[in-house]
Design a protein that fits this description.
With 67 residues, the protein is mostly helical. Helix content is 42%, strand content 6%. It has three helices and two strands; from the N terminus they run E-H-H-E-H. The radius of gyration is 13 Å and the shape is globular.
Length: 67
């Protein structure tokens, strides 16, 4: 599992590789997104996008848990 932090704000931004408008350095942000994508692929991980309410609403929250 990778937590996006502020690298990605919404699923739509991730799916379309749009850098959040408030990020200061677009090139560094795009490079971070690529690094995340590479890690997701290599590790077969999931991306949890912290600010994405729709995704968050579909995830288990305490006291629920994932095995």
């Amino acid at each position: 599992m990778i937590l996006s932090g502020d690298a990605v704000h919404f699923r739509d931004n991730w799916d379309n590789r749009r850098v959040p408008s408030m990020n200061v350095n677009k090139d560094q942000s795009a490079a971070s997104m690529q690094k995340i994508a590479d890690t997701l692929s290599r590790e077969k991980a999931q991306l949890w996008i912290n600010h994405d309410k729709a995704q968050r609403d579909s995830q288990k929250m305490a006291p629920e848990f994932y095995d």
